[in-house]
Amino acid sequence: MNTNAIRNRMKSVRQTLQITNAQKLIAASRIGKAKQMLAQSQPYHDHILETIAGVLLAAGNVSNAYLEHRIEPKKRGFLVLSADKGLAGGYNHNIIKLAEQVFGGCEIAKLLTIGHMARNQLTAAGYPVDETFDFSAENPTMFTAREISEWILRLFEQKQVDAFDVIYTKYYSAVRLTPVVERVLPIQPEALGEPLIWPYEMAFEPNANAVVSILIPKYLKGYIYGCLVHGWACELASRVAAMDSAIKNGGDMLERLSLQYNRARQAAITQEITEIVAGASSI
Amino acid sequence: MPEEHLFQLDILTADKFFTSQSAQQVVFSSPSGRLGVLAGHMPMIAAVLEDPLEIRTEDGTWRVAAAGQGFTEITQEHVRFYLDTVEWADEIDVVRAKEALERASARLKGSLNHMEYVRTHAAIARAITRLKVAGK
Predict the structure, then answer these.
(1) What is the CATH code for A27-241?
(2) Cβ A43–B42 below 8 Å, yes or no?
(3) How far apart are CA A103 and CA A127, in angstroms?
(4) What is the pLDDT of residues A34-53, one digit of tens each?
(5) Residues 48-107 of B with CB under 8 A from A
(6) Stretch A211-234: mean pLDDT, rounded?
(7) How far apart, in whole angstroms, are the C-alpha atoms of residue A199 and residue A56?
(8) Does domain B3-89 have CATH number 2.60.15.10?
C-alpha cells in the first residue's frame, strides 16, 4: 500500500473514532440517570408484587377479568422492547433473537414493538407488527407506561388476545443484561413470587373485588414502567461497552496503520536515495 | 410524643420513593369517604381517591400532599401508600393545574368515547385536588 492510501485510511479511522467517542460519552452520561430511575422504581415494583399476591391469597375468591385463564390460550399477544438506534452491541440482536425463538410455532394475534430496531427487523422478517402502536424506547416516562398498559389491558378485555407476554432485557449489572420473556396477563398469582402473608385478617375498603380491580391496572402500569427502565438502562450499558471496545479496536488499528505508514514512507525514501545514487553513479 | 402513638408511613409511586417517615396520623379519601388512620389501626387494604392527603408528622405539625389514585396497605407494622402521583403542597404548579382544569372542562363539552370520558374525569379530579391542596 502506498503512503497516500494509508493516510486516507487513518483519517477515516480517526473520524469513526470521533463518532464512537461521542456515542460513548452520551450513553455514559445518561446511564447514571437511568440507573437512578431503576433504583427509584424498584421499591414500588417489589412491594406491589408482594401485596397483590397477598391480597389474592387473603381475599380468596376474587373474580376479575384479568385473572381469567382462558382455556387453551390460542391468541397470543407480545410486546418486544428494543432500542431506537443501533450501535448498541448485541442488545438489539439478542432481544430479537429471543423474540423469534418465542414466536416459533405459535400463532401471533398481536405484536407490539417499542423501539425502531425491533419494529423494522421483525417487519422485515414477516411478522405482523402492529403499525399503529408507536412508542420510543428513549427516556421512559410514567405517561408512556400508562398508555402502553392501557393498550394491553384493552386487548385482553376485548379478547383480541388470551395471553400476553412482554419480551425485554433485564438489567442486573453493567455486565449482566439478560433478555427475558414474562407473562403479564392473565395475572398468575403463583408467578408473582412470595405472597405477603399477614398474620391477621385484612379488611378491604370498599371490598376485595373493587380493591383487586384497582390494584391490577396500577400493578401493570408500574410493571411496564419497570420494563421500560430496565430496557433503557440495558441499552445504554450495552452501548457504553460496545463503544468502549470500538474505541479500543480503533486505537489498535491506528497504531498498526501508523507503523505501516512509517514503513512505507521509509521504503519510499530509501528507494528515492537508491535511485539518486544509481543515477549519479551512471553519469 | 410516646412511641406507641407513632407508626411508619411510606408513600410510593411507580417512579419514586416519595417519603418514608414516622407519623402520628394520616387522613385520605377512600370511596366511602375520608378515613383517618392512627397507630394501631385495624389491618386493611383500601382504595385511595384523588384528594388531599394529610399527614400529622412526628412533631405534631400537619403536612398536606395532593394524592392521585391508588391504594393503601395498613398493617400492624406500617402504613404504605401506592399512588399514581403525589406532590407536596409547595411543589404544585398552580398555573399548570389551572390550565389542565380548563382544558379538561372544555374537552368534556365535546363528544367523548368511554375511555376519553374516564380520562377527562380523572384529569379534572387531579387538577381540582392540586388546586385544593395548593390553597388557590
Answers:
(1) 3.40.1380.10
(2) no
(3) 9
(4) 888 888 888 888 788 778 87
(5) 69-71, 73, 75-76, 80, 82, 84
(6) 87
(7) 15
(8) yes
